[in-house]
Amino acid sequence: MIVVMRSAATKEQVDAVVARIEEAGLKAHVSVGELRTVVGVIGDDRTKEQLRGMLEAMEGVEKVVKVLQPYKLVSREFQPEDTVVEVGGVRIGGPEAVVVIAGPCSVEGRDQVLSVARAVKAAGARMLRGGAFKPRTSPYSFQGLEEEGLRLLAEAREATGLPVVTEAMDRRQLDLVVQYADMVQIGARNMQNYTLLREVGRVRKPVLLKRGPAATLEETLLAAEYILSEGNTQVVLCERGVRGFDNHTRYLLDIGAVVVLKQLTHLPVIVDPSQAAGKRAYVPGLARAAIAAGADGLIVEVHPDPERALSDGPQQLRPAEFTHLMRQVWAIAATLGRAPASLTAV
Ligand code: PEP
Ligand code: MN
């Protein structure tokens, strides 16, 4: 349920509405828009129904609306304006900017991560990616450099000014990742790990939440709802492909998901063409399509020597290929009135 305040409502009137909601044992979530403030009411349905008439009669209240979807805080009904997620000075979301995150699948060593960071920055990337804890299908595959990988990412941030995103797969890793990274990635395989979602909802770091390979959009939005319901509103959604019936690409990139999510939620939506493609030759086409469809950004895997990569070698672009792709991406973004986000942190 949301309480829509009149545009002329005073702060005292909003505070009184919040107090009434909290007195009833419910949670209030205040969202101050350009035109008006809306107060989300979270909690038991029956209590909300009992409170409804009382809230409608309060000073400054225009109307009380029931949110029909199972997800509330993430819905456009709840907050019509785009959320802008700020990661170390880079702003993701909103109608103007496009943010490209790039870097290796896994951090493998100092030279590797530093050289990629410099190359992707020069090509227009605004954030660095790189896995230190890797979710591998086989327990015998390279599992990541762990804390050493996080240290190297932090070093690359110092050297380039690019904020860093990296994955945490469980609580222990989350504590470490939060110490080093600017944004926490929750990987596709953990999208429905509800205890981890709650944990990351309690930290004060932005979250990159990837869609599970078999998750519906409603399940994806409810996963984000877990994070917001714990108080962390800084969430970026990422479409990275779902299981399809054809194996020419590794996953089936759901471009429609970008279009639909942009309608259903105010959260920024980015696309990972690399995990979806599985092969480097397919990455540029998927990346261009994502930007044309209205994605707020991309996360792309780039490696200085992909033949020797310890994970996902076949899908990682070489720096020169990435640079070429970025020129095309900026051209497509420009036709939509969008431009690369600025990098204020440097
Ligand atoms: C990755 O970003 O390297 C990764 C493992 O992504 P996903 O969780 O989307 O498979
Ligand atoms: Mn990867």
In short:
37% of the residues lie in helices and 18% in strands. It has 11 helices and 15 strands. Helix 3 runs parallel beside helix 4, helix 6 packs across helix 7 and helix 10 packs parallel to helix 11.
How would you describe this protein?
With 346 residues, the protein is α/β, with parallel strands linked by helices. Helices cover 37% and strands 18% of the residues. It folds into two domains: 64 residues, Alpha-Beta Plaits, CATH 3.30.70.1140; 259 residues, Aldolase class I (TIM Barrel, Alpha-Beta Barrel). It has an eight-stranded parallel β-barrel with strand order 7-8-9-10-11-12-13-14, surrounded by six helices. A four-stranded antiparallel sheet has the order 2-3-1-4, with helices on one face. A two-stranded antiparallel sheet has the order 5-6. Manganese (II) ion binds next to loops.
**CATH fold title of the largest domain:** TIM Barrel
Q: Which runs of at least 5 residues are low in confidence (pLDDT < 50)?
A: none
Number of domain units = 2
Largest sheet entry: 8 strands, parallel, barrel
The strands making up the biggest β-sheet line up spatially as 7-8-9-10-11-12-13-14
Rg over alpha carbons: 21 Å
Q: Identify the overall geometry.
A: elongated
Proportion of helical residues = 25-40%
Q: Spell out which ligands are present.
A: phosphoenolpyruvate, manganese (II) ion
What would the average pLDDT be, to the nearest integer?
Answer: 95
> Roughly how many Å apart are the termini?
42 Å
CATH superfamily of the largest domain: Aldolase class I
Question: Which CATH top level class of the largest domain fits?
Answer: Alpha Beta
> Could you tell me the number of beta strands?
15
Binned strand content: 15-25%
Question: What structural class results from the helix and strand content?
Answer: alpha/beta
Gross CATH architecture of the largest domain: Alpha-Beta Barrel
Q: How many H/I helical runs?
A: 11
